[in-house]
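EI: anyone free to look at a 279-residue chain?
SC: sure, send it
EI:
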Amino acid sequence: MLVDFGTLTCINWLRTQPWTRAWAAAYRDDGLVVLGVHTPEFSFEHDVGLVRRAMRERGVDYPVAVDNDYKIWTAFDNHYWPALYFLDGDGVARDQHFGEGRYEESERVLQWLLGVERDLVQVEGVGVEAAADWDHLRTPETYLGYARGERFSADGEHHAYTLPRELRLNHWALSGAWAVERERAALEQGRGSIACRFEARDAHLVMNRAAPAPVPFRVLVDGSPPGASHGVHVDADGGGLLDDGRMYQLIRERDRVRERTLEIIFEEPGAEAYAFTFG
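SC: here you go
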């Protein structure tokens, strides 16, 4: 058995999914059982409907346990997304791996447990599942809630923020009437925006909405629409729609990777922003 811990907004888990799905399909007839375990990081990820939608979007066709109370996580003494545990026929863990990578070795472990030997699967992730451009990635994951937030460039008071004239690399800022809460920044009134100075091929933002209707947003890069460098959830003019809780890919750079300033503008309140991730 292969046990796969993940959560729907985790970029590291998303980038491992092409391999997990491929293994599930390639070795099903050899006796491999894959069990996904969805253990939420953010509060909105407890929504079972969102989990079901995320698994459909990923093309996951094996069982996924909803671990909202962290019981399975605790039983495995797990601490990571993603995490893979390789169990033999007696349920004994024979190997484990945390994070991305090590795909060839992991598949060889599966073959050893199943008693088979053949060519490894050929996998290439696309869209949000594409492997990161590690050679040009200089910006780390950045949380926007005060519990884990770092590098926040604030200019304002009483939640009425304005963007600074310049942002240093890997810093972020707000404009408008935002409440910076424990795990998120929430736009409470009127128009607002989030800006981030980053260097990476891909830029993503984990978002959810508090508004009853979807919230439109617009993405600018160095003050202009992204054009060909728009992400999966944005068009060339920078337009996007915050409809459900997920990780939104805003930018996939088609030109040379360099320092750039990303701004996400919301014309209406109701947006909740949790974390930037990069690839």
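EI: DSSP finds four helices and 16 strands in the chain.
SC: 👍
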